[in-house]
């Protein structure tokens, strides 16, 4: 069986011990197969009562800690995790399943594969609900820019999961160069600027100060970047945030 990048992953039986290096995947696993999840990163914050061994961060996981958990498989993501760590785990004999998610459809397809093909538990109810929630055609929305950092200012650009979510909401991404380009606020022509709370923790003070004359809206970064169970409610919550910002 091959992962999302086409790399063969030898899984002679459905994995019973899983370590997740991706917060979105951790939440999906904890909600669907909690008895199989044995390890996660320090950044894995959902569900709030998650009680598993921690293996450090997404960019610097402890390979020794992962090995001690004797996982049947480690789940990772092409953008979230380093290829070096994936390679070292594989060299140590640990199977690693890597996902590649740049669009909403990628997320749905990848989750189907993980739970149906890899874990062999079928399609989770939350995934069915999420696909239904995102199926309707969107109403036309504003031209939106999503800031992800300041000093320097960085933005969600082309070929990103967040950018695809905006499109599926009927919005146009005001930033289309590169994936995460740098640009000063004055260089970004948008009708609305979304200020998430991750990875940079934007606050209400960032809006009027940096974007005079342009509406801004604070929004949970989890709604824009996480896939998994959060997708079942993300459309409604993001639509509400857009409406608050454009009033």
From TrEMBL:
PANTHER family: PERIPLASMIC BINDING PROTEIN, VITAMIN B12-BINDING PROTEIN. Belongs to the bacterial solute-binding protein 8 family. This is Cobalamin-binding protein. It comes from the Bacteria. NCBIfam families: TroA_like. Gene3D superfamilies: Nitrogenase molybdenum iron protein domain (3.40.50.1980).
């Amino acid at each position: 069986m091959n992962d999302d990048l086409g790399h063969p992953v030898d899984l002679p039986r459905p994995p019973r011990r899983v370590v997740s290096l991706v917060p979105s995947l951790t939440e999906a696993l904890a909600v669907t197969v909690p008895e199989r999840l044995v390890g996660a990163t320090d950044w894995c914050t959902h569900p709030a009562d998650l009680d598993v061994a921690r293996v450090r961060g997404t960019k610097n996981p402890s390979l020794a800690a992962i090995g001690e958990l004797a996982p049947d498989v480690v789940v990772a993501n092409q953008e979230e995790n380093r290829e070096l760590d994936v390679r070292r785990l594989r060299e140590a004999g640990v199977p690693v399943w890597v996902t590649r998610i740049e669009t909403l459809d990628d997320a749905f397809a990848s989750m189907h594969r993980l739970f149906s093909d890899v874990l062999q538990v079928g399609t989770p109810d939350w995934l069915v609900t999420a696909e239904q929630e995102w199926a309707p055609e969107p109403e036309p929305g504003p031209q939106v820019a999503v800031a992800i950092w300041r000093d320097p200012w960085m933005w969600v650009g082309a070929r990103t999961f967040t950018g695809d979510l905006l499109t599926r909401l009927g919005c146009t991404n005001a930033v289309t160069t590169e994936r995460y380009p740098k640009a000063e606020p004055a260089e970004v022509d948008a009708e609305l600027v979304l200020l998430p709370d991750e990875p940079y923790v934007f606050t209400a003070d960032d809006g009027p100060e940096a974007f005079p004359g342009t509406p801004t809206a604070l929004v949970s970064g989890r709604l824009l970047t996480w896939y998994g169970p959060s997708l079942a409610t993300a459309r409604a919550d993001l639509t509400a945030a857009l409406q608050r910002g454009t009033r």
